[in-house]
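Q: Given only this backbone (219 positions), what sequence would you predict?
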């Protein structure tokens, strides 16, 4: 997370903090784009200067086309300073949903390959394991952000919606159930608080195997 008017190379402190920030392995064609391969629109946060495309979401957020990666990081920092870490990750995923690569995934599952599977698993592991992380505030102080259990669910949902398409308003019950169980490994007390209502609401929709797993965890 960088301070205003700073670039990655302009702040050694920001660069050092970024080494401790949540990170996962994303598909390169989505992160940086690849015009030759037919993926001209990259993620705004990559700082890619090769693409002049103005994304609808960029307009919505009033991202300056000439400084869009810096402006994106300012939006991220605002979320963190307001205790909204989950929304920061959701924004990150919404912007990936607008890349050429992931638009094709959502529209026709054209690029749904091993690279996407690796990225998904890496993302889920990052969200699952992240509880707190440092960031640089607007007054250049090192602060700590928290990622709550509920925000982890929001982040997971944003990823699932990105893969399935922005028009999808809900995520498959089985997928959400599996992620609840993933979170139980390191967040058992919070799992019991949040997974209980979910299981009660969707019990009949869960498989017998999934029901048994929840019974074991919730007892």
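A: Predicted residues:
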């Amino acid at each position: 997370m960088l301070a205003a008017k700073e670039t990655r190379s302009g702040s050694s402190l920001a660069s050092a903090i970024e080494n401790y920030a949540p990170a996962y392995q994303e598909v390169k064609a989505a992160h940086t784009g690849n015009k030759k391969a037919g993926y001209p629109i990259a993620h705004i946060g990559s700082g890619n200067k090769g693409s002049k495309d103005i994304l609808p979401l960029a307009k919505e957020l009033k991202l300056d086309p000439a400084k869009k990666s810096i402006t994106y990081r300012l939006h991220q920092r605002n979320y963190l300073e307001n205790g909204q870490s989950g929304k920061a990750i959701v924004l990150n995923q919404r912007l990936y949903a607008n890349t050429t690569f992931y638009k094709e995934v959502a529209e026709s599952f054209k690029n749904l390959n091993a690279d996407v599977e690796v990225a998904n698993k890496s993302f889920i592991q990052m969200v699952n394991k992240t509880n707190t992380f440092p960031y640089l505030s607007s007054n250049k102080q090192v602060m700590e952000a928290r990622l709550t259990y509920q925000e982890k669910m929001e982040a997971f949902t944003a990823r699932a919606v990105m893969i399935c398409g922005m028009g999808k308003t809900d995520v498959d019950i089985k997928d959400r159930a599996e992620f609840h169980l993933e979170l139980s490994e390191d967040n058992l007390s919070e799992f019991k608080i949040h997974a209980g209502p979910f299981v009660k609401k969707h019990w009949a929709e869960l498989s017998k195997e999934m029901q048994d797993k929840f019974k074991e965890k919730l007892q």
